[in-house]
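Retry 2 of 3 after timeout on previous attempt. Resubmitting structure tokens to design endpoint.
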């Protein structure tokens, strides 16, 4: 199966701003004001972190850093919507939790109006995902920390499924950074991630299995293995034919589990989980156990921290008992 790329409509070209900063290039740093998102709640100034304030001076380097791993640019305004500054802080928090899977770039439009003008920003908050220096609109809703974490987790799962597995190196927070630190993969997972990037899913499965054999408590390796197995199962599948088969045979375990894998790769976790929960509810014996085991594998691929996994586990328990 050919992987469908992570894509959202309405991408905006930021390359012009990256090449030729406008008249506001001398604007003060985003963190200078008392209401800036970096003023509180994110990493301590000067500490190693996976976020930075974005200014015209470091904008180009920040965009170029997305060639190694995704950059999420969050636009906020302490003066117009203080809640958007909180969301920027929350994105910085989530970036720390993902340990370099993406870099959070915080853009205070009160001090960086030229960047906001270049992207024709209409509202705050607004989040762009920048991948290979190409920005795409990602979020335009005000989200709390838990919802933001769940959404970013889903995006990261989609990107992992496409072989986008690079990591940013920690950097010192703040605009003076320049976002030009060398990037590197976590060496523990580099062989498996390299295999995914090369499209060698079988090798990725083998590499993750080695990691788990050495350390059965390695949660990230377990999640990586579960996702790699989803990719392995769907590698030569025609999605349309597989979905048609599932629609025509609602109690066929093989058809339904394959369709659930496709739902997961499409980012529709609720559909994937509910499909198998209902199959567990309707089935018995070996079929029921097979559906349950497959669903547990999908939970592992997503990660127990995702609230949709908790909801799915509760639904599974209800279906079983």
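Retry 2 succeeded. Sequence:
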């Amino acid at each position: 199966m050919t992987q469908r790329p992570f894509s959202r409509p309405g991408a905006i070209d930021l390359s012009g701003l990256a090449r030729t900063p406008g008249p506001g290039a001398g604007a003060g740093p985003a963190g200078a004001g008392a209401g800036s998102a970096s003023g509180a709640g994110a990493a301590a100034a000067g500490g190693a972190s996976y976020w930075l304030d974005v200014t015209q001076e470091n904008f180009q380097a920040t965009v170029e850093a997305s060639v190694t791993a995704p950059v999420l640019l969050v636009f906020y305004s302490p003066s117009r919507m203080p809640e958007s500054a909180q969301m920027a802080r929350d994105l910085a928090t989530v970036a720390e939790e993902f340990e370099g899977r993406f870099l959070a770039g915080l853009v205070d439009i009160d001090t960086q109006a030229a960047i906001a003008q270049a992207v024709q920003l209409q509202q705050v908050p607004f989040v762009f995902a920048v991948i290979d220096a190409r920005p795409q609109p990602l979020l335009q809703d005000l989200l709390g920390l838990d919802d933001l974490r769940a959404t970013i987790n889903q995006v990261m799962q989609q990107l992992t499924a496409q072989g986008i597995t690079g990591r940013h190196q920690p950097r010192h927070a703040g605009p003076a950074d320049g976002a030009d630190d060398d990037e590197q993969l976590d060496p523990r997972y580099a062989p498996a991630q390299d295999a995914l990037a090369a499209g060698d899913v079988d090798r990725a499965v083998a590499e993750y299995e080695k990691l788990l054999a050495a350390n059965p408590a390695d949660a990230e390796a377990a999640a990586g293995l579960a996702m790699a197995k989803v990719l392995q199962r769907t590698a030569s599948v025609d999605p349309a034919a597989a979905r048609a088969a599932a629609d025509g045979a609602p109690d066929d375990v093989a058809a339904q589990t394959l369709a659930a894998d496709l739902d997961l790769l499409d980012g529709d976790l609720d559909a994937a989980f509910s499909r198998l929960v209902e199959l567990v509810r309707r089935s018995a014996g070996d079929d029921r156990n097979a559906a349950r085991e497959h669903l547990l594998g999908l939970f592992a691929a997503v990660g127990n921290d995702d609230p949709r996994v908790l909801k799915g586990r509760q639904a599974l328990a209800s279906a079983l008992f």
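Attempt log closed. The chain has two domains: 48-172, 188-320.
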